Amino acid sequence: MATSDNVVRAGLTPKNRDVYTLCSMLTYKQGFPTILSGVPSNPYTMKYIPPFDEFEVDRCILPQETSIIFPPSPGPSIFMVISGDGKMFTESSEVLIAEGTVLFTPANAEVNISTISGLHLYRAGVNSRFFDEPVISSSVQQHEK
């Protein structure tokens, strides 16, 4: 939910409740949800951009001994590791990552991720449409054995 100063409460609070206004704002539209297909950013990353400007999500599945660079984004990001292990590098830090790791990166931070045994992760960040400029696609590097 996007941030807002406009809150209408209907219950479970001692604060002012306005049930009539809340009910008048609701829409009752039945149907199936729209499933986003995603757009490939590179061979390992799919970008999902919903039809609103609050956020976008990248799904990245890296094979063993591969690295990827997420270019600087004008907004902050959150990375969530679903499975696998590897390392995440930024200008100021180097962190071992594994299943369950959740990391915050500030705006304008380039993020380099390398895998050890493969990696499945997601990046959530501010929708690039919000900044009125396209964000450059992630680049991929294969480690030499």
From TrEMBL:
GO terms for biological process: GDP-mannose biosynthetic process. The keyword Isomerase applies. GO terms for cellular component: cytosol. Gene3D superfamilies: Jelly Rolls (2.60.120.10). The keyword Manganese does not apply. One of its GO terms (molecular function) is mannose-6-phosphate isomerase activity. Keywords: Isomerase. This is Mannose-6-phosphate isomerase 2-like.
